[in-house]
Write a structure and sequence with these properties.
Number of helices of chain A: 16
Structural class of chain A: alpha+beta
Largest sheet of chain B: 2 strands, antiparallel
Strand content of chain B: 5-15%
Largest interface: A-B, 55 and 38 residues
Structural class of chain B: alpha+beta
Number of strands of chain A: 17
Radius of gyration of chain A: 30 Å
Helix content of chain A: 25-40%
Order of helices and strands of chain B: HHEHEE
Oligomer: heterodimer
Largest sheet of chain A: 9 strands, mixed
Chain lengths: 487, 95
């Protein structure tokens, strides 16, 4: 569990606690839609990815996409959740121009995935567990565009019928940070499993946030649901605004009305969606066009067998196998390409040193150039080789930086660079002694002061480094200097 | 179960069906009659019986994840009362 101090908001009547539950909509990474054979690609011309099923034409019948079912099961397994071998599709009825059927096919009473949990990690290595209530499959709606005409709304049905996994958490989060960390961890999980690409900018992963406030330890307060928040930053902003709003209402003697609210990112505030209040009677009933979804246990086992190593497992293995800190392991695991790169580079090398190079020097360069690890200009094998040259004493850490710069510039393998530029560390005692003698002879005053103040030895080390172009082995230089100065 | 005029008004509104006020009472009577006819089924004891979802023993058929439809916005828009630049155009929806 988290050992962080609890998040509290100071009101006029004392401290308040925030209680948060999230409904995350994750778009299944399928080529075709949940119940039709139209495509799901982003950025198509309006109504280009629309079949007559998606447009709600009379007589059209839905046929479920096997791949979408598989991804839901897979995600459920990743959440250590109960897989329901029999689930039902229901119609959720409401009217809106971007919902041509007049209902959304969803799962209400019997979802495909039941209770599970997700262990969430903060960047500082602390963690907490969020209960998962359920995961169900449902259709996305189309898109209404309100700003193309002052008197009309334009409707594009390309998203209509795209498969979504709605993942519902328990109200287990207590701060904006925790909510953001939960979404981040969930996003990482679906990306690892390839069940959703997690692209929040394109709306492929978005969250409805349930917010309520209470005095610490008191009964749960009435919650408001903030719809469709599509970035980690907005999730946090929306929670902070909404919690303060609720506290103010209560402290002014008012009552929180359970309602759906919109987050206005431009103004940084939430506001009531009054227009939809009355329509909140969805009259769910089983869709007569669809039989119950029955999963063959053998198939579920096969899906289980295809699960990749999950972030949680990788995190533990990074620490035990390579002796990395929780923080370093978490940063590596945060990007599967970076973790793979590290493991490739660490083969037969000093893993901690490799981690330092990958996480600091290389990640720094990549970040500055906006590159992903899949496209690293320096290969994992070369980073491994560079670390090898440091650990076998061929070059110093300082020289290694120079070699790395040259590797980044495309000069090739580290050994070749070292040879070409004569960067091999000077450990030849004779050569080092000669250089030291020369410096001592030219600076008798410094020699005297170093004898009295041993820390002044640093000046000599610097001089030797300068004289050897940085190639002197610092350990050897120190040793010789100490002997010569009688320290 | 009897349906009253208020329920008819509410269901009509949810279904976006415009029903004049004077039709609500007659509709309530008609719907009540239909429901009480169906309610005869309640005489059968169905304790512990799974709801039947289909008259035939078939499992839900599935489709492979292959794109084989779409790409014909014109056909999709054919019945639209109004369209523009490939979009359906509907009266302004106020948020």
């Amino acid at each position: 569990m988290s050992e962080r101090p609890p998040y509290r908001i100071q009101g006029r009547t004392g401290e308040w606690e925030v209680v948060l539950g999230l409904e995350v909509h994750a778009q299944v990474a399928s080529k075709a839609k949940l119940f039709s054979a139209a495509g799901t690609g982003f950025g198509a011309a309006p109504n280009d990815h629309v079949s007559l099923v998606d447009a709600g034409f009379p007589g059209m019948l839905p046929v479920i996409n096997r791949f979408c079912v598989e991804q839901a099961v897979k995600t459920g397994l990743g959440l250590k959740a109960k897989i329901n071998h029999r689930s039902i599709f229901d119609r959720k009825n409401y009217f809106y121009p971007d919902l041509p059927q007049g209902y959304q096919i969803s799962q209400f009473k019997d979802p495909i995935v039941g209770e599970g949990e997700l262990i969430v990690h903060h960047d500082d290595g602390t963690s907490f567990t969020v209960g998962i209530e359920r995961l169900h499959l449902e259709q996305d709606a189309g898109k209404s565009i309100h700003d193309m005409d002052p008197n009309a709304t334009y409707v594009d049905l390309n998203r209509s019928g795209v498969a979504l996994m709605e993942i519902v958490s328990r109200p287990d989060m207590r701060s904006p940070d925790e909510a953001a960390a939960y979404v981040k961890t969930l996003r990482q999980l679906v990306r690892y499993m390839g069940t959703c690409d997690g692209d929040m900018e394109k709306g492929n992963l978005r969250a409805d946030v349930n917010v309520s406030v209470r005095k610490p330890g008191a009964e749960l307060g009435t919650r408001c649901e903030i719809k469709n928040v599509n970035s980690l930053r907005f999730i946090q902003q929306a929670i902070v605004y909404e919690a303060h709003r609720q506290i103010e209402v209560i402290e002014d003697g008012g009552k929180i009305v359970q309602e759906t609210r919109l987050f206005d990112a431009g103004k940084g505030e939430t506001r009531s969606m009054r227009s939809k209040e009355e329509a909140h009677d969805y009259r769910y009933f089983p869709d007569p066009d669809l039989l119950p979804l029955v999963l063959d246990p053998v198939w579920v086992k096969q899906i289980q067998a295809t699960l990749p190593e999950l972030p949680e497992q990788k995190l533990a293995r990074m620490q035990s196998q390579y002796g990395l800190s929780a923080y370093d392991a978490a940063v590596l695991v945060g990007d599967v390409a970076r973790a793979d790169f590290f493991e490739e580079a660490a083969k037969g090398r000093d893993a901690k040193l490799v981690a330092n190079w990958v996480l600091n020097d290389l990640s720094g360069k990549m970040g500055a150039d906006g590159l992903e690890f899949e496209a690293s200009p320096v290969s994992a094998a070369d980073i491994g080789a560079l670390v090898g040259l440091i650990t076998d004493g061929t070059i110093s850490g300082k020289i290694a930086r120079e070699v790395f710069e040259r590797m980044w510039a495309g000069e090739g393998a580290p050994a070749a660079i070292v040879e070409k530029h004569g960067l091999v560390q000077v450990t030849d005692t004779g050569a080092l002694e000669a250089a030291i003698d020369e410096i001592m002879a030219a600076n008798p005053d410094k020699v005297e002061s170093a004898k009295e103040k041993p820390q002044a030895i640093g000046w000599f080390v610097g001089q030797v480094m300068k004289a050897t172009g940085g190639k002197a082995n610092p350990g050897a230089v120190n040793q010789i200097l100490k002997a010569k100065l009688g320290l | 179960m009897a349906i009253d005029a208020a329920t008819v008004r509410r269901v009509a509104k949810l279904a976006r069906i415009a029903e004049p006020e004077e039709r609500l009472e007659p509709l309530a009577r008609e719907l009540s009659a239909i429901i009480s006819f169906i309610e005869q089924l309640d005489e059968v004891n169905t304790d512990g019986v799974e709801p039947m979802t289909s008259a035939v023993h078939v499992t839900l058929p599935m489709r492979e994840d292959v794109v084989a439809d779409g790409g014909d916005a014109e056909r999709v828009l054919l019945n639209a009362p109004k369209s523009d630049q490939g979009f359906f155009v509907v009266p302004k929806v106020v948020e």
